[in-house]
Design brief:
CATH topology of the largest domain: Rossmann fold
Low-confidence stretches: none
Number of helices: 10
Strand content: 5-15%
CATH superfamily of the largest domain: HAD superfamily/HAD-like
Structural class: alpha/beta
Largest sheet: 6 strands, parallel
Order of helices and strands: EEHHHHEHEHEHHEHEEH
CATH class of the largest domain: Alpha Beta
Number of domains: 2
Length: about 240
């Protein structure tokens, strides 16, 4: 059955938030390495390694998702402390990184055309995003995304985040769609795919030619897309 409602994740599904991560950390570490008395590459390796270890277990760090700036500063401080470097610089390093990364965020080239095509076809649309209210609302306003959606569910506002089924149920209620009439598109196998499937929604994983579906994946998506034009093809809306 083709859907009457399509829900989307935001970060790294519609909005490229990870594309500038490596460059942002490189520039940040280069800016602080001399003051810390180390090579920028060593600083980068220490911070990125700590971040990777910390965020690996998504269920264990669920409560940090609405405090992302605090989580980043915390992990920078841990990384500095492990190396015997000055932990008092952790907040400055974290803030500098955010400034660098934020300046590099951009919509994927296929985002607006896809959303406009879905709306023109009469489909109901929703944005379901984890994260802090202020941070996510700023992105939505900056990239003028709100006008493309009938409902927006932000973890920091709603009180629950993906994969909690109530997040998806709330979105479906808002657009008067049943699970069998709904699809959800996202890049996170645990939160997006597992969460949508847990609410009975058809779940499509989008990897943007960056991610790999591994044998030990937490769940198996109903569909796999590299980019959004494949969604339009699946919906028989491709021009």
């Amino acid at each position: 059955m083709l859907p009457r409602a399509i829900f989307f994740d935001m970060d790294d599904t519609l909005l490229d938030t990870s594309g500038g991560v490596e460059e942002s950390w490189r520039l940040t570490c280069q800016a602080f390495a001399q003051e810390l008395g180390c090579e920028w590459s060593a600083l980068n390796e220490a911070i990125r390694g700590q971040m990777l270890a910390f965020w690996k277990d998504e269920a264990a760090v669920e409560h940090w998702r609405t405090r992302l700036h605090e989580a980043r500063a915390h992990n920078v401080a841990v990384a500095l402390g492990k190396q015997g470097w000055d932990v008092s610089l952790a907040n400055l390093i974290s803030e500098r990184y955010w400034d660098e990364q934020r300046s590099r965020m951009k919509l994927f080239g296929d985002t607006l055309a896809t959303l406009e095509r879905l709306r023109a076809a009469g489909l109901r649309t929703g944005l379901i995003t984890n994260g802090p209210q202020e941070m996510q609302r700023e992105k939505i306003a900056r990239f003028d995304l709100a006008r493309h959606f009938d409902v927006i569910v932000i973890e920091g506002e709603f009180g629950h985040g993906k994969p909690h089924p109530n997040v998806f149920r709330h979105a479906m209620t808002a657009v008067t769609a049943r699970p069998e009439e709904s699809w959800h598109i996202g890049d996170n196998l645990y939160a997006d795919i597992g969460g949508a499937q847990g609410a009975g929604i058809h779940a499509a994983w989008i990897h943007r030619d960056r991610l790999e579906l591994k044998d030990d994946a937490p769940c198996t998506p109903d569909r796999v897309f590299a980019h959004l034009p494949e969604l339009l093809e699946a919906l028989e809306l491709a021009s």
